[in-house]
């Protein structure tokens, strides 16, 4: 397994990636194979009926060569023209609508399955990927990828295949009914048209891809700037952000202009090919009528065939471009799905087995986010079952890394971490995280109601359970005093709440989850002294008979811990109870004296 991060697969050549994207899409469609086959049958029926219309017109025109006043004229024209022509037109529309109706479930089902797979895979990627990602660009790639699935299926099944079927039928009729020149001209025009369209489209795809990249970049800058709205305001940088966004928009504008210019070139060439073929066919047919080899009905049929072919051929270039674009968008989404999982469950991993309160052990743990920057150096300690161990030390000592490793957001390079004697790398990640609850230092909430954010600790919890957890976190009174109570919206990332309110929501969320292992990572850092003391009492109560890891800066919050570890530069430099560490007169004692003097202990 790679340890360097969630890495993408090596980029494939454009043609290879197109076929690879199609191969990956087919299994999702094949889940609806009977609908696919039915849709194909309806499509063939629609095209057979469509091709039958010019043949009918030829017969009707030839049948009109009756003598003036012949009573058969009144019978042939109304009955033949209205009934047969109307029937074929109706059949064409009916089969087309049936095809779309039958295949709609397959299209939407495939789009839903791929979008869900991508979403689940992104959640399965490591924390490293999510710390490095660009949210705006990534969401844009997913959005375009899902839309690309629908476009790809729609254009290929509803346009490319029907056009090919219709071309085949028309070529067969022209070759059988007339001389080979008619089929030859049609086939040559089609071949030249396709070669020209594919060649020019492949050339101009680079401009579309470039426009997509600039579009994602502009979207990323906009989203990032809006998410950091307060920071922008703090530093009075609205104009700076606008300039950055405008630079991205200007690059996007230039790329789209190149794309539009090459599109005009492509359209002009296509029209020239079609017009030349149409003139050649009609000249050949008109000459045949003059020479007596063809009837007037034959001329009408050839003209009708060319008009029917002209319309889909005219859109073939647009369709091919859209298919290429859809494949490009789909490939970008599949690239996200191909990101390697840095942290993955071992083959055959079983859920964590717990019987009562578990003990947690770190055994000679070495860890580095990057090989050149080691964070932990042989850290070993145990949190006995049902006991509380606190970790203190300066910023950058590696305290919060311990919680990330216990959650298995990263895998360690050496040593092992066990819960109830089981190496967390040998059991499923989901079961490890289910057994742990955390109150993080930086609480981020969903842009939803207060109730939703507290209930996120245990989805499906009742309102009474949510309120009980809120009372435990000393936030029920505040929530009840707001006009909408538990239905109050907290805003993007919870920005409508103060830091202390957000942290108390996080505490309530963890109390509701009620896991056997608790982690408090600076859990009261955003609270004032009075609230800190109140919540410390509740946290001690919540940690009663649970295995708890407390990461703290203020030493007053950990004096009751069964053991206190003092970390510095990724190593444990002191350990013991509060009283024992004070008696040693070492680093902990100096930190305590400093905080007592500065009043940071809240006393």
Task: Please outline what is shown here.
The protein has 603 residues and is of the alpha/beta class. The chain has 18 helices and 10 strands. The model is unreliable at 1-16 (pLDDT under 50).
Question: What do you see in this structure?
Answer:
Helix 3 (72-124) packs parallel to helix 9, helix 5 (135-177) packs antiparallel against helix 6 and helix 17 crosses helix 18. It contains 18 helices and ten strands. The model is unreliable at 1-16 (pLDDT under 50). With 603 residues, it is α/β, with parallel strands linked by helices.
Q: Any descriptors?
A:
single chain; 603 residues; alpha/beta; ABC transporter transmembrane region fold; Rossmann fold; 6-stranded mixed β-sheet; 10 strands; 64% helix; 10% strand; disordered N terminus
């Amino acid at each position: 397994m790679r340890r360097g991060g969630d890495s993408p697969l090596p980029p494939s050549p454009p043609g290879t990636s197109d076929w690879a994207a199609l191969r990956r899409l087919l299994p999702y469609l094949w889940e609806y194979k009977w609908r696919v086959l039915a849709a194909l049958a309806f499509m063939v029926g629609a095209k057979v009926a469509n091709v039958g219309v010019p043949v009918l017109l030829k017969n009707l025109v030839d049948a009109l060569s009756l003598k003036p006043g012949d009573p058969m004229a009144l019978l042939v024209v109304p009955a033949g023209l209205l009934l047969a022509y109307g029937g074929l037109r109706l059949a064409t529309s009916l089969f087309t609508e049936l095809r779309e109706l039958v295949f709609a479930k397959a299209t939407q089902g495939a789009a839903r399955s791929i979008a869900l797979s991508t979403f689940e895979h992104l959640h399965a990627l490591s924390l490293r990927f999510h710390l490095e990602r660009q949210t705006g660009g990534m969401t844009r790639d997913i959005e375009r990828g899902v839309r690309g699935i629908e476009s790809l299926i729609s254009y290929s099944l509803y346009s490319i295949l029907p056009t090919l079927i219709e071309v085949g039928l028309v070529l067969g009729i022209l070759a059988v009914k007339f001389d080979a020149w008619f089929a030859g001209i049609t086939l040559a025009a089609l071949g030249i048209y396709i070669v020209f369209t594919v060649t020019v489209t492949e050339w101009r795809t680079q401009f579309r891809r470039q426009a997509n990249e600039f579009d994602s970049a502009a979207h990323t800058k906009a989203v990032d700037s809006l998410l950091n709205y307060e920071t922008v305001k703090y530093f009075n940088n609205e104009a700076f952000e606008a300039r950055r966004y405008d630079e991205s928009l200007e690059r996007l504008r230039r790329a789209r202009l190149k794309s539009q210019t090459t599109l005009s070139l492509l359209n002009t060439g296509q029209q020239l090919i079609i017009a030349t073929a149409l003139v050649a066919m009609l000249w050949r047919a008109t000459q045949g009528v003059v020479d007596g080899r063809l009837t007037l009905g034959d001329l009408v049929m050839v003209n009708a065939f060319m008009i029917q072919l002209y319309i889909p051929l005219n859109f073939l270039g647009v369709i091919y471009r859209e298919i290429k674009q859809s494949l490009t968008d789909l490939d970008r989404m599949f690239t996200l799905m191909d990101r390697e999982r840095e942290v993955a469950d071992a083959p055959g991993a079983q859920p964590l087995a717990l019987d009562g309160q578990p003990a947690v052990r770190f055994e000679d743990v070495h860890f580095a986010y990057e090989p050149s920057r080691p964070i932990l150096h042989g850290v070993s300690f145990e949190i006995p079952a049902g006991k509380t161990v606190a970790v203190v030390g300066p910023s950058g000592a590696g305290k919060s890394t311990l919680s990330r490793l216990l959650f298995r957001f990263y895998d360690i390079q050496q040593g092992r971490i066990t819960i109830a004697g089981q190496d967390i790398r040998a059991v499923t990640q989901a079961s490890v995280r289910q057994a742990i609850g955390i109150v993080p230092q930086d609480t981020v909430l969903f842009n939803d109601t207060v109730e939703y954010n507290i209930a996120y600790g245990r989805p499906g919890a009742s309102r009474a359970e949510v309120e009980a957890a809120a009372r435990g976190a000393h936030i029920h009174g505040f929530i009840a005093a707001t006009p909408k109570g538990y239905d109050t919206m907290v805003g993007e990332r919870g920005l409508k709440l103060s830091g202390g309110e957000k942290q108390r929501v996080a505490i309530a969320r963890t109390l509701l989850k009620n896991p056997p292992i608790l982690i408090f990572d600076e859990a009261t850092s955003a609270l004032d002294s009075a609230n800190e003391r109140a919540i410390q009492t509740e946290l001690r109560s919540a940690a009663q008979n649970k295995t708890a890891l407390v990461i703290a800066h203020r030493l007053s919050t950990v004096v009751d811990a069964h053991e206190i570890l003092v970390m510095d530069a990724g190593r444990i430099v002191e350990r013991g109870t509060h009283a024992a560490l004070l008696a040693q007169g070492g680093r902990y004692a100096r930190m305590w004296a400093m905080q007592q003097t500065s009043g940071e202990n809240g006393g």
